[in-house]
Amino acid sequence: MKCLLCESISFSHICDSCQKTFLTPSIYKRKILNNIEVISFYKYRDIKNLLHTKHTDLGYYIYSIMAKNSFREFASSFEWQEKISAIPIDDKNSSGYSHTAILSRQLNSKIILAEFAKLRAKNDISYSGKNKEFRMMNPRDFIFSPTKNKEIILVDDIITTGSTLSQAITTINRHNHTPLFCLTLADASVK
Fold it and tell me: Which of 21, 82, 158, 184 is least surrounded by Cβ atoms within 10 Å, i.e. has the fewest?
């Protein structure tokens, strides 16, 4: 097959050379509700076209590659005093796979346990391309099922306004669980 980025012959959808050149993660941090830190690995503008594959069959492979380069690397060097759970936000299977579940699965380690179907939105409203006012007027209304571990890493693919993650934090706090921080592939606010 051909690499999607450089079109050279490759055994992967994105060749090793392009992964090193374009998908070597950097760390971008910002704080949201209750001073919770959000750690992102890419600038949204740099991987926008790759992120937009999430609703296609190809997206499974692209998200898997990006997750291995960022989330798996993060998990391999992450240390904590006790076991914690990684929870993908609204990991519904709407495209034949869940893109947030792909990200969370790469966090599995001796310290981090990825748990699925734990945080689901009651509504199906899409926030894609919507402003902060729209997001605030149309909350996700999350339902949370308790996890094995009380301390949690929240996982999503993109942070724009932070409203989805903030709503998730509020829901988890109501259930006496503690969100430690959030991980996303990309931050839309980084220039």
Answer: 82
The count of residues in the chain is 191
Look at the alpha carbons of 130, 144, 64, 184 in this order and tell me if their dihedral is positive or negative.
Answer: positive
- What single string gives the DSSP state of each residue in 44-86? HHHHHHHHGGGGSHHHHHHHHHHHIIIIIHHHHH---SS-EEE
Give the pair of three-digit tokens for residue 86.
């990684």
160-182 pLDDT, tens digit per residue, is 989 899 999 999 999 999 999 99
Looking at 68-187, list the stretches that DSSP marks H as alpha helix, in order from N- to C-terminal side. 73-77, 99-105, 132-137, 163-174
Which two tokens mark 42?
Answer: 């890419």
| Domain 24-187: CATH class, spelled out | alpha beta
User: Do residues 69 and 25 touch, judged by C-beta distance below 8 A?
Assistant: yes
Residue type, 150: K
The model's pLDDT over 121-151, given as tens digits with 9 standing for 90+, comes to 887 777 777 777 887 787 788 999 999 999 9
Q: Which of 191, 186, 184, 159 is nearest to 47 (CA)?
A: 186
Spatial distance between the Cα atoms of 182 and 60, rounded to a whole number of angstroms: 22
pTM, two decimal places: 0.91
